[in-house]
Amino acid sequence: MQGSFQLPLTRIAQSPYNWKAIALGLTAASSLFETLILIKQLPNYSKPAPPPALKEQFPPETYAKSQSYGRAKALFTLAKGAWGVVEAGLTLYFDVYAWAWGAAAGTLAYFGYSGDREIAQSILFAGILALISTVTALPWDYYYSFVLEEAHGFNKMTRLTFVTDLLKSFLVGAAFGVPFLAAFLAIIKHFGQSFVYYLMGFMLAFQLVLVVLYPLVIQPLFNKLTPLEEGSTLKLRIEALATRLKFPLKHLYQIDGSKRSNHSNAYFYGLPWSKHIVIFDTLIDQSSDEEVEAVLAHELGHWSMSHPTKMLLINQVHIFLLLSSFPPFLTSRTFLPSFGFPTLPADTPLTRPAPILPTFLLFQLLLQPIEHVMQFAMNAVTRAFEYQADAFAVGLGGDFRQRLGDALTKLHVKNLSTLHVDWLYSAYHYSHPTLPERLKAMDQMEMKRSGKKEL
Ligand SMILES: [Zn+2]
């Protein structure tokens, strides 16, 4: 399968195109596309009244807050996007990748390491790029938490947490990223043309290791998980729900999400035979026990219908296509030199590949249009999953429809979520259907369900 689409790609990769101009053009076009989608959404923040279905839950004052929060976030995204395209453009124009690659080699040579040390050089190269992007993102992240979220009453983070989070993220990224990158490159170097399947096997195993290690090692660095109070009505309720659905519940935690933000959530994770449910303290504070249970019924609907596994499979196909389409660029004589990397001497055999990591990163710039299409497709999939999970919760009978509807509406109000969404904006940015869409679908399911019962 790999070979069949690599042949035309090899021809393309060897062509004397101005790859840098193509990458610049695609980056600009991609940013323009996202900007236009956002601009099309902007007038929605000036609509004078909420949708009729949510008029009661959104009294004028709350509605005004939600509109102003939505507008502030949209303008922030617009400004950040504009800066993003300038940064990406400058990075390409001034050959920053080639510079970082050379700087990594220089650093190695300074410490007395010479010769071909591609893996070590790649790790330093990745480190330099990560440092640059962290530093340039810093003012934006700071503004988002301490100005924007703060102004709308959501930020709970202290400046100390902000700084320690940043340092911890960098260390965790290095602790896991360095061995991952080393293995990633070693596999490609070792297996040559047939690396794709080995690499995918390795990446899958790595993900499984992360699933196990994340709650043990990474999460405790950032958050505190406390087992839900023994014998509390909420715990009993959720345990009864898990038993009813045969969900292999091992632990039930409350997480201190309120340390950083007032936004609320709940999720589950773990291996197939041992699952953990985590509920944000903010969700517990904002909702009744019955509502939290309904939210979890929705979450367990995702589990019951194997949505995480399905997403994993879709991602594997995506990764497969990505990994098997870039090797032709490794033997291209025009690709990397176009971005300021040294031209290969005329007598180098064509089989001697160019540096893997820079090729892989720059190659991905060419895929931007495909990634946009993918985003529409992925959102369509996750929305279908959301409707299915809602239907699952409603299908549990009793007053689940009412409770889930109430819970979602309450979360919407508390999170000041946007109420009017342009269809294109929604299709591109929303992994969930909008609240009116969900409520309407749930009503239809409930009607079908009670209709069936009467028959
Ligand atoms: Zn969901």
UniProtKB/TrEMBL annotation:
Q: Name the coenzymes or cofactors required.
A: Zn(2+)
Spans through the membrane: 21-39, 90-111, 123-146, 166-188, 195-217
Top class in the EC scheme:
hydrolase
Q: Could you give a single Gene Ontology term from the biological process aspect?
A: CAAX-box protein processing
Q: Which CDD domains match?
A: M48A_Zmpste24p_like
Entry's PANTHER family? Answer: CAAX PRENYL PROTEASE 1
Q: What is this protein called?
A: CAAX prenyl protease
Q: Please report the organism this UniProt entry assigns to the protein.
A: Calocera cornea HHB12733
